[in-house]
Design goal:
Layout (H helix, E strand, L loop, with lengths): L2 H28 L4 H10 L15 H16 L5 H16 L13 H4 L6 H14 L15 H20 L3 H31 L5 H20 L2
Length: about 230
Amino acid sequence: MDERMQDTSELAESAQTRAGMYSFLANLFNQRPDLELVRRLREMGPEGFSIGVSQAEVSSDVEEGLQEMASFIGATQGEPEEQVEQDLAVDWTRLFRGVSPSYGPPPPYEGVYLEGAGSPSDILQTIMQTYHKFSVDIDEKAANRPDYIGIELDFLRFLNESEADAWLDGDEGKALDFQGAQRDFLARHLGRWVEKFCDRALEEAKTGFYRGFIRLTRGVLKEEIEAFH
């Protein structure tokens, strides 16, 4: 394999790794915890959240977030599955559904956290235009609005998978276009409000699992934003 082909393969692998990371984050925001999730977490075990890099290579948020999630899984191994499911589901609802102003943080919608950036309808229209530009269909009747954090993270998953495919196809121009789309989406949308939400949600999280997950989300997005600068 010549050097250029090897570099292209490595770029594709890096984009696919990021896509997997975004998929993991999006799924936990989008799906209410159930028994299947509890069983998957127990199968992974605490070691499933270990990372094969030194602490110096990742942010403290990423490192500590993974450790908190692992600690929760280890500490609850002996508890009934139904109890763990209930504890996680209550925390998920409190943190991400915006039940009431007195119960958890404001829900993680861009239109909620970007005050002064336009009306919520304007923000939604802008986001939908971006999705449609890349032929990504969003069900506007779904439970989550298009500016929900889990939907925006899944869009970044799509952009990274598309970048990986372009590298593998040898289409450097297309791959760089998808990189640019990631940079623009973080700069104009998710990167502008995710830290504000995470800071607020950390004050409200009751389980170590979601406290760690929020910390992980904050760290990952911060690293991604900084990588484009």
